[in-house]
Amino acid sequence: MTLADYLQAHGLTAAEFARRIGRSRSTVARWCNGQRHPDAAAMRVIMDVTQGAVMPNDFFSSAT
């Protein structure tokens, strides 16, 4: 599940999620838009907060 899909499914804004994980709203928005990828530490936090619903592979396109 993408982070954007997770936020939508749980009724969260980028700002609300950012507060939960200690990052900025703009950073979370960039992750959702595919402009940036989270670093390893952020990915671990995202996995924990989403209880595994969003995994590192979800940030990378599966298109070949």
From TrEMBL:
GO MF entry, a single one: DNA binding
Pfam family, one: HTH_3
Domain HTH cro/C1-type: from-to ranges: 3-49
Matching InterPro entries: Cro/C1-type_HTH, Lambda_DNA-bd_dom_sf
Domain of life: Bacteria
Family annotation (SUPFAM superfamilies): lambda repressor-like DNA-binding domains
Coiled coil: none
Name of the protein in its database record: Helix-turn-helix protein
Annotated organism of origin: Nitrospirillum amazonense
Classification lineage: Bacteria, Pseudomonadati, Pseudomonadota, Alphaproteobacteria, Rhodospirillales
